[in-house]
Specification:
single chain, about 250 residues
Length: about 250
């Protein structure tokens, strides 16, 4: 999936989500983007964080043509608002950096950010402003599809908030196992990370498409902030343009 966010200053005006397979070339982007942005491209500044090289090339080409400017790419060498302790840097997803930048923008440091997307990432930034790394696990959609592929009788179904841990049907059991199970997984990682960070209180922010579904079943994720990746991209791009007061 590709998430698009439109800002005026720090205010996130609107978001749009489009399927990656619909945007494999610049022509596809050129067909889709003008309708999303209502054709208003004059003065539009564009920044992004991509983990799919082919889509990144298509997006860059389309935005160059639409705006006449080179879009800004968020990466490990960007002014993120923190230093990065991760090896090799090339293996670190730029969406994780953007989510961490958004979390630091919202809550300062230290902070732990949990992003519920295709994968679940739980990342930590220290009090001293160092991205320490984190953990990666399968996300809810991926978990459901893996169960459907690997078993004969478990269907792919839309996950809903479970009423109880003891599901009274296969559908309820899948929702309980995946939603409550992933909340417990995230909680366990967060508790361990807090200990490794010194045991002191650390704010935890949850984001991503499934955050509102899963976070209510967590004992550690008290705050859901939609669009943290998009907010982080905006913050880094402003800082890179010299508009952010550090």
């Amino acid at each position: 999936m590709i998430d698009l966010g439109f800002f005026r200053g720090k205010k996130l005006l609107k978001t749009r989500r489009i399927f990656t397979d619909k945007c494999r070339n610049s022509a596809a982007f050129l067909k889709i983007l003008p309708s999303i942005i209502n054709g208003r491209v004059a003065g539009l500044r564009v920044a992004y964080a991509s983990v799919v090289p082919g889509v990144e090339r298509a997006f860059r080409a389309a935005m160059r043509r639409l705006t006449g400017h080179e879009p800004y790419s968020v990466g490990p060498q960007s002014p993120l608002g923190f230093r990065v302790r991760y090896r090799p840097l090339s293996s670190l997803g730029r969406d994780r950096l953007a989510a961490a930048a958004g979390a630091v923008e919202v809550a300062g440091t230290p902070v732990i950010v949990v992003d519920f997307g295709t994968a679940i990432t739980v990342d930590a930034v220290s009090r001293g402003g160092i991205f320490l790394g984190g953990a990666i696990a399968p996300g809810p959609g991926l978990s459901a599809r893996a169960l459907a592929r690997g078993t004969a009788r478990l269907p792919v179904s839309r996950l809903t908030a479970p009423r109880t841990a003891i599901g009274e049907s296969t559908k309820e059991g899948l929702s309980s196992g995946i939603v409550m199970g992933l909340a417990a997984l995230a909680d366990g990682l967060i508790i361990r990370m807090k200990k490794e960070m010194g045991g002191k209180p650390v704010p935890v922010l949850a984001t991503g498409g499934a955050a509102k579904l899963i976070a209510p079943f967590s004992g550690t994720m008290r705050r859901v902030v939609p669009g943290l990746v998009l907010r982080g991209i905006r913050a880094v791009a402003e800082r890179a343009a010299g508009e952010k007061r550090v």
